[in-house]
Amino acid sequence: MKKPFDTLTEAELVALTSEGLRWYIDRACAENGIQLLPDAAPTKPSQTPIAPDGFVYQVAGLSFRTHDDAIAVRDFIRERGRVKLDYGHGDYNHKVIKPLDDDDEVVTTKAAFTETYSASIIDVKAEQKATSEAYALAREQYEEIVEKRTTIANGIMASYNSAIRYEKDRQALRHEYTRYLVLAEGDPVIAANFLKSAKPGSVTLLPELYTREVELGRDNARTRWQANHVEQTVGA
Question: Residue 185: inside a domain, yes or no?
Answer without folding.
Answer: yes
